[in-house]
Amino acid sequence: MFSITPRFRAAMSLANHVPPERFNAFLGRIIKQLIQDKRPFTEAEELKLIEVLNFNLEDLHSLIDACSLTFERAAAISAHMTQVIELLDSAGVAPSQLAGFQDVWKENASALISAYKEKPFGAPGSSYLLDVQWHLHLQGENTCASQPVFCN
Question: What phi and psi, each to the nearest 5 degrees, are found at residue 129?
């Protein structure tokens, strides 16, 4: 899916400090907001999460970004759950947190993939892929006449 960077690994290690029942709700909120193309948490909700999880704002944003990235990349390639779990396991995510990712992905993957298929790319609202055209130009040489032959 993508390579694991030290920053991603550090963010995922924060996930191991979140109680599993809260982590499932946390992940559920992130993926549901990704489906709607909205910000996962408001500023007020982030302040409450900082208190509840005992994180600073930077750590909270790192965790949100890492979880969002995981779901976004998985949706972009229509990843199977085993690919997601293998990636997260290699990043050091605890088994209880892996189960949370698995549950949330299993429940929401098809909706997120569908939302991403309908999402435009490029400038907002202006770029859609409508057609692909290929043009092949070959140049060959006739050995008998030693004159170039052009094919279009």
Answer: -80, 115
